[in-house]
Amino acid sequence: MNLILKELFTNIKFIVWLFILVFLLIYAFIYPQSFSVNPARWFQVPRALPPSSDFPFGTTLLGQDVFKLTPLALSNTLLISFIAGAIGVLIALVLGFIASFASRIINTITSIFIDIMCMIPGAPILMIILYAWRDKLTMPMIGLIFGAIGWTFSARIYKGLFEGLKTRLYIATSQYSGLGLLHIMVKDVMPYVIRFLMVNFIDITIWAIGNEVTISVFGAMKMDEVTIGTTIHWALQYQALHLGIWWWIVFPVLVLIITVTSIYNVTITIDNIVFVRRTKI
């Protein structure tokens, strides 16, 4: 463990991207706690000002400080996406395991269910659900809905992974010894899928970020809550680019891109050092 940590924290790429990620997480989740007034409220500051020393990211046509609006939007987008990632991984893991290790009838039913869900496009369903219930939804509830839709292809991958593990001698020994499915999953299977769990969590998280932005731009989201997607939506509604107020869109999008890139690079570096090299040894 000490050798792994030493190798991680002597990797320049990892340190740089980890620093950027931590900084952005502090900017998104801690910095907004210092606000005495909700930055999403309209007409708090002069309208349509370009970036300056007083307003580093400029202001919107609605009189909002973009530098203060962006972390609030980013925190909500990340909250939705992290919850979606956790829920999606959990559902995919459980269904993939059941489809591989349960009795033949349950195995078949679960496999058919997974295949059917894989064929149904997620974005239109999300748009319908979120638009119909948007007045009643909170950010965590939206994350749960994203997770309940985003697990499909991951479950297929887990099923294939578990089918391969099922042929291992120690798995067969556990089954013939009468051990329960939960014991087999936790003790025998989980050590081999931890690496994929981490990567899959990031995969679903990034998927949720993309879908949140897309659905919000179309106006099918809870529009009175600030996210990166709703920020872009209102900027487009008020013709920000046409009026030359480019900073209303550019800075939130740029911060989101850097956040996603840092999450990806930190994850890939951890995967390469902790899992790939350990496997080679």
From TrEMBL:
Membrane topology: Multi-pass membrane protein
Coiled coil: none
Domain of life: Archaea
Subcellular location: Membrane
Leader peptide range in chain numbering: none
BP-aspect Gene Ontology terms: transmembrane transport
TM stretches of this protein: 12-31, 78-100, 112-133, 139-158, 192-210, 245-270
InterPro entries assigned to the protein according to its UniProt record, in alphabetical order: MetI-like, MetI-like_sf
Major subcellular location class: membrane
ABC transmembrane type-1 domain: residues covered: 74-268
Keywords assigned: Membrane, Transmembrane, Transmembrane helix
GO cellular component, one term: membrane
Annotated PANTHER family: OLIGO/DIPEPTIDE TRANSPORT, PERMEASE PROTEIN (DPPC-2), OLIGO_DIPEPTIDE TRANSPORT, PERMEASE PROTEIN (DPPC-2)
Name the UniProt record assigns to this protein: ABC transporter permease
Native source organism of the sequence: Ignisphaera aggregans
